[in-house]
Amino acid sequence: MSVQFSAPLMDAKHFPPSLIKAQPAFSLAGSSLRRHPLPVNDISTFSRARYALAAAALYLKQSTQQNTVLLPAYHCPALVEPFIYAGYNIVFYPQLADLSTDLATFSHLLTSQVTHVVVVRYFGFSQNADDLIQQAFAANKRVIEDNAHSLVHFWQTCAATPTAISASVSSVAKTLGSADGGVLYLPGYNGSAQVAPDFITELKALRAGNRPVNSAADAGLRYFRAAMQTADCLRASRWLMLRSNYAAISKQRRDNYQYLAEQLKHSSAGRVLYPALTQHDVPYVLPFLLHDVNSFTRIRLQQIQVLRWEELATPATGIAGDYQQHLVQLPVHQALSKLQLRSIVKAVG
Ligand SMILES: Cc1ncc(COP(=O)(O)O)c(C=O)c1O
């Protein structure tokens, strides 16, 4: 099946520049000279998590048959395009309102054609990811865990080395204030071919807060550049990855989340998708379900970078189609001030 994505619903150019960003700006604050004892065996680094996913897809591909991957129906193109690039057939599995997946439906989709399964821990929450992973493994599928939204959970996987998980990825820049960074856990994979960025790239990235990309996306793809597949992450990103104080960052994100969730409990604009945190959750953003799709524009006009996954593989049906318009992601990152959090509450209304 060839995948087509829907057009974006909004163009960022139509909004004033955001004053409150979705991710923290680059800063070494909170990192230390001392390296933390992280489980770094079997990990490789990339410029973004999408290239870590592509590396896993290529390495875990089976040469004797057509490879088919089950991907979640609610996604962003950066999660899907690595598998298009790697030449997989793609089948989507549906999500329920809390972004978990019904186990009976999932089990029916684990047909003999399916060789691989990707399980996402959305927004730093686990939904029923652990059950899906076990079920896919029991059906003899290779499981790739997508921890793009949860670097903390990624490190837990690296430490626990669960047999059910063939590979895990995370997006460093979504948690730390880095200008790039994707990381892959894949036992047996040799990432030594990765090319370190030159110093000009390093400097430009730090100045812009984002790693510059000079090649165009590949034909038929929106956000995937094959030329970046072998690019290693910036040195500054590696520094942050190895030397950040994860306990402090997690606490701050949880505190910010709990503050917003409490303040938005009675919001007339919509509802907090997950009103409470469990002790394991380190939120990437606060998913908020709008009653009225136009509220997205209203919040963006107040210069708050709310995100929304607007570009879905077509046809987007069920929860994916609904959330494409109504589910927005509010910032909760560790660098937000109390004043900024109050502005978010006010803007949401
Ligand atoms: C669930 C998920 N997986 C993978 C990715 C890819 O991450 P990156 O932007 O680091 O390539 C993203 C974000 O774009 C994502 O939201």
Features:
Aspartate Aminotransferase, domain 1, 12 helices, alpha/beta, Aspartate Aminotransferase, domain 2, 10 strands, seven-stranded mixed sheet, binds pyridoxal-5'-phosphate, 349 residues, 2 domains, three-stranded antiparallel sheet
| Apparent shape | globular
Name the CATH homologous superfamily of the largest domain: Type I PLP-dependent aspartate aminotransferase-like (Major domain)
Spatial order of the strands forming the largest sheet: 1-7-6-5-4-2-3
The CATH topology annotation of the largest domain reads as Aspartate Aminotransferase, domain 2
Order of helices and strands: EHEHEHEHEHEHEHHHEEHHEH
Query: How many strands, which pairing sense, and closed or not: the largest β-sheet?
Result: 7 strands, mixed
**Second CATH tier, the architecture of the largest domain:** 3-Layer(aba) Sandwich
Number of strands: 10
List cofactors, ions and other ligands.
pyridoxal-5'-phosphate
Structurally, how many domains make up the residues?
2
Work out the helix count: 12
Coarse structural class:
alpha/beta
Share of residues in helices = 25-40%
